[in-house]
Specification:
- The structure is a single chain.
- With 295 residues, the chain is an all-beta fold.
- It is 0% helix and 45% strand.
- The strands form two sheets. It has an 18-stranded parallel β-sheet that branches. A twelve-stranded mixed β-sheet has the order 1-2-3-5-7-10-13-16-19-22-25-28, with no helix packed on it.
- A hairpin with a 2-residue loop joins strand 1 and strand 2.
- The radius of gyration is 18 Å and the shape is globular.
Length: 295
C-alpha cells in the first residue's frame, strides 16, 4: 500500500516513516501487523502517541523503530501499546539513537506498554543488536521482554546502552535469564542510572532484578541517587547486580528508597547471583533494604 505522503512523512507498504522534526501525533489501532513506525536515520523530532495500539505477530517486524542517530522526544497521551514480533523489540532504540519519554503536557496519566518478541527487549534492542540511549522523565512505562530478554535493555546477544530514569512510574519484566532492566542472557547491563520516579523491576528467570543476565561475563554499572526502587531477582539472581552464575555489575547507591530481593536460590539482595562474582557495591545514602535468598 502506498499513500501520498505529507510534510515529513511517507507511508509505503506497511511503514509510516517520519523524516523531519514534526511535531507528529499518531493514534489509532492496528493489530494485524499492517503498520510500523520508523524514524529515519539522523532525524530529530517530537512524537506524541495518543491512544495508539500497534501489534504484530510477524517475526522480525518491529512496530516502532528509531534508526541509528535518530533523536525522538516521545510524549504519551492515554494508554499506548506497542507489541512486536519475534526477535524485534516493542520499541527499538538503535545504536547512537536517543529516546526520551514523558507524559503529554495535558495528560499526566499518559502511559506506554511495550512488549518485545522472542529474544528481544520491550524497549531497546532485538537479537544481537546494540541499544542507544533511553531517558524516562515521566509518564507510565511498562516494558516486558521476550524470551532471554529484559523489559528495558538489550535483547539476546545484544549490547546494552544507557538508561536514565528521572521520573515517572516504570515497571519492567525480563524472562529466561534476563533482568527486568539491563542485559539479555549472558549480557551486561550497560549503564543504568535512576535519579527519581518509581521503578519496579523483576526477572522471571535467572537474571537480576536490575543488572546483568544469567552467565554474563562482563560488568556494567547501576547507579541510584533517588526515587523508589523495587528490584527482584529470578532464580539464582540478585535483586540488583548479577544473574545466576555470572559476573555482577558495579552498584552505587547514594539516595532514594531501595528494596532489593535476591531469589530463593542463593541470590544476593545486592551483589552476585548464585555461583557468580559479587562485583563492587558502594552505599553512601538512601534507605536500603537488601535481602538475599537461600534454599
Amino acid at each position: 500500500t502506498t499513500v501520498p505522503g505529507g510534510d515529513g512523512w511517507t507511508y509505503v507498504g506497511s511503514s509510516l516513516t517520519l523524516t523531519n522534526a514534526g511535531p507528529f501525533t499518531i493514534s489509532g489501532t492496528n493489530t494485524a501487523g499492517a503498520v510500523r513506525v520508523v524514524v529515519s536515520q539522523g532525524v530529530t523530532n517530537a512524537v506524541t502517541l495518543s491512544e495508539l495500539e500497534l501489534r504484530t505477530t510477524t517475526s522480525e517486524q518491529c512496530v516502532f523503530a528509531l534508526e541509528a542517530g535518530a533523536s525522538v522526544a516521545l510524549f504519551l497521551a492515554g494508554d499506548n501499546i506497542l507489541q512486536s514480533g519475534g526477535m524485534s523489540p516493542g520499541l527499538k532504540v538503535s545504536a547512537d539513537a536517543l529516546l526520551t519519554i514523558t507524559h503529554a503536557p495535558d495528560d499526566g496519566d499518559g502511559a506506554l506498554f511495550a512488549y518485545g518478541g522472542g529474544y528481544a527487549a520491550g524497549i531497546g534492542s532485538g537479537i544481537s543488536s546494540a541499544v542507544g540511549e533511553v531517558i524516562i522523565n515521566g509518564g507510565g512505562v511498562g516494558a516486558q521482554g521476550g524470551s532471554y530478554s529484559p523489559g528495558i535493555g538489550c535483547g539476546y546477544g545484544g549490547t546494552a546502552g544507557s538508561l536514565t530514569i528521572n521520573g515517572g512510574e516504570v515497571v519492567a519484566i525480563g524472562h529466561e535469564g534476563a533482568p527486568g532492566i539491563g542485559g539479555g542472557y549472558k549480557r551486561s547491563c550497560g549503564t543504568v542510572t535512576i535519579n527519581g520516579g518509581s521503578v519496579t523491576s523483576r526477572s522471571l528467570g535467572y537474571g537480576a532484578g536490575i543488572g546483568n543476565g544469567r552467565e554474563a561475563g562482563e560488568g556494567g554499572t547501576v547507579t541510584i541517587s533517588g526515587g523508589t526502587v523495587t528490584a527482584t531477582g529470578g532464580t539464582g539472581g540478585a535483586g540488583i547486580g548479577g544473574g545466576y552464575s555470572g559476573v555482577s555489575c558495579t552498584v552505587e547507591i547514594s539516595g532514594g528508597r531501595v528494596t532489593a530481593t535476591g531469589s530463593d536460590f542463593f541470590g544476593a539482595g545486592i551483589g552476585g547471583g548464585a555461583g557468580g562474582g559479587g562485583g563492587t557495591v558502594a552505599i553512601s545514602g538512601g534507605i536500603v533494604s537488601a535481602n538475599g535468598g537461600d534454599m
